[in-house]
Amino acid sequence: MSHEDTELPDDIYSEALPPGSKLLSGQYEILQYLSSGGFGITYLARDSLNRTVVIKECFPEAFCSRVNKTVRARTRNYSDDFKSIVALFIREAHALSRLDHSSVVGVHQVFEDNETAYMALDLVDGRDLLDLIENDTVSFSPGEVYRMALALLDAIGHVHAQDLLHRDISPDNILVDKSGRPVLIDFGAAREEASRKSRVLSQVLVVKDGYSPQEFYVAGSQQSPSSDLYALAATLSHLISGQAPPNSQARLAALAGNQPDLYEPLRGRFPDYEDAFLAAIDKAMNIVPAARIQSAEEWTLMIDHSKRAERARARAMDDKTIDLTVMNLVKSVNRDLQETATGVADAAPATAQPRDSTPTRDKPAPKAVVEDLTWSADEYDGFADDEPAPRETPYARIVAATQRMRQEPKRRKLPFRISMRRMTTVPVIFFAYFFYGQTALKYEQVQAATVDPIVRLGEEFRTWNEPDKANVEISRGIGG
Ligand SMILES: Nc1ncnc2c1ncn2[C@@H]1O[C@H](COP(=O)(O)OP(=O)(O)OP(=O)(O)O)[C@@H](O)[C@H]1O
Ligand SMILES: [Mg+2]
User: Fold this and answer.
1) Coil, strand or helix: which one is 402?
2) Were both Cys, which of 172, 341, 392, 419 would link to 130 (CB 3.0–4.6 Å)?
3) pLDDT > 50? residue 376
4) Among 221, 186, 193, which Cα is nearest to 85's?
5) Do the beta carbons of residue 373 and residue 478 sit within 8 Å?
6) Other CB atoms closer than 10 Å to residue 204's CB: what's the count?
């Protein structure tokens, strides 16, 4: 509501604070009364930084009255009720102050004064939706209604994510600013809780015919996010059809009496709107809570194509993660196998090859043997540069090492032990095969990560269990 545009309300509520009243030691000054709804009085005010804000005063008129500026329980009997309502108001204001969404009114401050409680809110420069609907000169295009619905769904999703319900969504509690952005005001959850404690409040404060779902009429009934979504659907239905929907209690009574539903579905009646958009409103308006849309997100996905595409992309990203996991598995298995081959070669002369020869069987050049072929510093020390080394030739050393290996059967077991350790990965590999086989991964990738390592492991075994064959190849390599 813009400060300049605001007309003075026709009926100045006699219990309202007069303009010029100061609150919180002069930090706020009341500029004008805006409205009263039975539970609170709303004012336009100026804060200490000279900004115009909206102040809501906790004033449940059934229980209290004003004496000078101070708010007191009407009678001693109401004293406890009044105190607990003020406490609920403060608790609710604190919960609201944690909400941070462009389509939820911002709470600046919560404070106590005049023996009641107040909240200072951001001023929304605009008009409420009820006012706009009833004003013949304003009409919303289907595109505007659609954008408004998405913004409100996002805001309601945000509220629900904090474990809060709005509980009083209706056209008069949605302000539309000059850019067309809808803003939710006037949360009713504190009133609902207060009404459960007081029969007087329960009669007047908690339901709004046409917008409240049937469960709001039954004290202590189960309320859920779908209750708020019903009220949003009723609001959108009013915006589209120009008529407030029928009272949900009357709908329930008609259905219970085997009469047709008093709510006429929007789908098929407004060709300017997408069918899916109208169908979603009709579903959210179902009289049975379990048959409604259950979350703001579910509703958004039903009507927003780009959100659906975004969701599909996010799923694809997840698949990429799986992809990456498999690729890493492939890499690590390959690395392990390579290490095994190197470790085996360290211990077995069968793979020995001269430094310059190409390794046979595509295995990496065995490290230990390569080192063997090099004169070590120790061996070289003590000899003159021109003096030939008095040791065996590299070839002779390889032959000696091979003979040593033959005489030491224990060392032949080393490759087998290493391979056994690798074998423990087989169940993991099988599990991966079946797990990844369920995904959308390409068959080759699954194969590369699972079956291939097993096959290579088998080949490795065969090689190491045939040392003589390996020897033949190696000696051929040396000779050639
Ligand atoms: N943040 C705001 N910015 C601009 N105008 C506001 C704001 N909050 C409330 N108003 C104006 O004050 C009116 C009443 O506010 P609100 O809906 O919060 O209280 P209510 O319905 O009168 O009282 P109750 O809380 O008892 O239901 C709104 O319809 C709107 O015109
Ligand atoms: Mg209101």
Assistant:
1) helix
2) 172
3) no
4) 193
5) no
6) 15
Question: What distance in Å separates the CA atoms of residue 153 and residue 334, rounded to the nearest whole number?
Answer: 50
Residues 282-303: what's their mean pLDDT? 97
Architecture of the domain whose range is 1-124: 2-Layer Sandwich (3.30)
CATH 1.10.3720.10 fits 126-184+207-324, yes or no: no
Rg (CA), the chain: 40
Give residue 350's pLDDT band: very low, low, confident or very high (50, 70, 90).
Answer: very low
Judge if 1-124 and 126-184+207-324 fold alike in CATH terms. Answer: no
pLDDT (0 to 100) of residue 159: 95
Which two tokens mark 246?
């029928």
Burial class (CB in 10 A: 0-12, 13-18, 19+), 214: buried
Question: In angstroms, how far apart are the furthest CA atoms of the chain?
Answer: 120
Q: Which residues lie with the beta carbon below 6 Å from any ligand 1 atom?
A: 1, 34-40, 42, 54, 105, 121-124, 128, 172-173, 175, 185-186
- Per-residue pLDDT at 27: 97
> What's the pTM?
0.67
Residue 438 confidence (pLDDT): 52
Residue 78 is given by DSSP the state G
Q: How far is the CA of 233 from the centre of ligand 2 (A)?
A: 18
For ligand 1, mutation pick of 185, 187, 204 (most atoms within 8 Å of CB): 185
Among protein residues, the one whose CA lies closest to atom 20 of ligand 1:
37
Which has the closest alpha carbon to 222: 153, 291, 292, 289?
289
DSSP string, 204-268: HSS--TTTS-GGGGSTT----HHHHHHHHHHHHHHHHHSSPPPPHHHHHHHHHTTPPPSSPP-TT
Annotate 308-318 with b (16+ C-beta within 10 A) or e (fewer).
eeeeeeeeeee
Q: Where are the domains of the chain?
A: 1-124, 126-184+207-324
So what's the pLDDT on residue 52? 98
pLDDT digits (tens, 9 = 90+) for 401-449: 667 666 655 544 555 666 566 666 666 655 655 555 554 445 555 556 6
What three-state secondary structure class fits 434?
helix
